[in-house]
């Protein structure tokens, strides 16, 4: 039986962000933008959705006079990603 895929993680960009963060302690906005090839506006929207779902935490600071946005995956985000991968495997094993 197929299991439902988390619609929040089923978005290509949000899944890319979570996939990057799962292997890192944290990553800044510029790094994520470069790795995903996303536009700043789209990435901001998707990061906001992941933060509202408590899948990531976002800290906004300054590095000198430049803003620095740092993202970190949360325990909830790790669990959601692991469940997503597990549920996705039900589609692959049929």
Question: In words, what does this structure look like?
Answer:
The chain has 94 residues and is of the alpha+beta class. Helices cover 53% and strands 19% of the residues. It is built from four helices and three strands. It has a three-stranded antiparallel beta sheet. β2 (56-63) and β3 form a beta hairpin. The radius of gyration is 14 Å and the shape is elongated. The model has no long low-confidence stretch (mean pLDDT 94). Residues 13-92 form the Winged helix DNA-binding domain.
Question: What does the radius of gyration come to?
Answer: 14 Å
Mean pLDDT: 94
Q: Compute the number of helices.
A: 4
Write down the secondary-structure element order.
HEHHEEH
Helix amount: 40-55%
DSSP strand tally: 3
Q: What would you call the structural class?
A: alpha+beta
What's the end-to-end separation, in Å? Answer: 9 Å
CATH fold-level assignment: Arc Repressor Mutant, subunit A
Unreliable stretches: none
What is the architecture at the second tier of CATH? Orthogonal Bundle
Number of domains: 1
Shape: elongated
CATH class: Mainly Alpha
Largest sheet entry: 3 strands, antiparallel
CATH superfamily: Winged helix-like DNA-binding domain superfamily/Winged helix DNA-binding domain
